[in-house]
Design goal:
Strand order of the largest sheet: 3-4-5-6-7-8
Number of domains: 1
Order of helices and strands: EHEEEHHEEEHHEH
Largest sheet: 6 strands, mixed
Structural class: alpha/beta
Oligomer: single chain
């Protein structure tokens, strides 16, 4: 396989991307975009199609009520943003974001795959790209919260339900996040 790497990219993750259809000709730029015949993965927050992201948010139980102003603020406040966009039609196929101190902790949030492309590897592309980002790849602990039916998906990247005696606690004004 031929890779052209100009940024700080994890070769193990690049190999995983190649297993998911990123064959010869994969390019990684400093701007953080990976090309694929059908999809483009990007870290460029300025290129996020906000209306499409709001459609993805609307498809979830936890983010359905987010406004455009809130969505723009979320993007601006995120340390890492990953998008997967279909080349031919440009709809947003996948998304995730990360908050990180770049040393000890990174928290992966809002991992979403469009309903019409679930089950074909888009989520894996998103997670591979999240974990390949240099601000995430080197941290001591990467954490996320997911529904019980998705634990097997995340276990492929070494995530575990073993969190010691820790418990998730939340302070929220959003009743849907409190299970009410």
């Amino acid at each position: 396989m031929d890779y052209w790497i100009t940024g700080n990219c994890n070769p193990v993750i690049l190999a995983k991307l190649s297993q998911r259809g990123f064959a010869a000709g994969v390019k990684v730029w400093d701007a953080g975009a990976v090309t694929h015949p059908s999809y483009q993965i990007s870290y460029d927050v300025a290129a996020v199609p906000v209306p499409r992201l709001m459609e993805l948010f609307a498809s979830t139980w936890w983010a359905a009520g987010r406004t455009e102003t809130q969505t723009r603020a979320i993007l601006a406040g995120s340390d890492v943003v990953v998008t997967v966009v279909r080349r031919q039609s440009t709809p947003l196929a996948g998304f995730a974001r990360v908050l990180t101190d770049r040393t000890y902790l990174a928290v992966v949030l809002d991992v979403i795959v469009a309903a019409d492309v679930r089950g074909v590897g888009i989520g894996a592309m998103v997670m591979d790209a999240v974990l390949a980002h240099p601000w995430v790849a080197g941290v001591h602990s990467v954490e996320l919260v997911c529904q019980p039916e998705l634990t097997g998906f995340y276990e492929r990247w070494g995530f575990t339900q073993r969190v010691g005696r820790s418990r998730l606690m939340r302070r929220t004004a959003d009743a849907s996040l409190a299970g009410e």
